[in-house]
Here is the input.
Amino acid sequence: MKLNEVLLEEFKQEAAATRKLLEVVPLEKGDFKPHEKSMTLKRLAVHVAEISGWWKECLINDELDFAKGDFTPKEFKSTAELLVYHDSLVEKAEKILTETSEEEFQKLWTMRNGEQIYFTMPKSKVVRSWCMNHLYHHRGQLTVYLRLLNVPLPGTFGPSADSQGM
Here is the structure.
C-alpha cells in the first residue's frame, strides 16, 4: 500500500472515533477547566475538531509561518455546529490524502515564526506527529474533561465502561 492509502485508512477510523467523542461534548459547560492552566472544554473540543484541517497545511503547503497568519479560534454555539465543522474538515482531509503522491511525503516542511525556525522535517513525519499523534493527545485530554463532568464516554477502540454499563 502507498503511504497516502495507509494514512487515509487510519484517518477515517480515527475521524469516526473523534466524531463520536465530539457528539457528547456539552458545550453549555464550555467554560469548564480542570486546572487554571488548562484550556476550557469549549476550546479543547474546537481544537480537537480543527486538527483534521491541518492536513491541508502539512501536505499542500511546504511551511507554516505563524508570523504570516492571524489565527482566531472558531466559535460554536452548539455541538451540532461543531460537528458540521469537524465533518467538513474530515471531508477535505480525505480528498487531500487521496490526491497526495508518494513524492510529496518526502518533501521537507517547516514550522516557523518569521525567522525563527522550530523544525524542518519530511512531510511524512509531520503528518504523523501533527495530524495524527497531536489529535490522539488532545482527544485523550478531552476524555478526561468529559469524565470529570460525568459525561458517559463512547467507545473508541471498542466498548467503553459507559457503553458496557459498568
Observations:
- The mean pLDDT is 94.
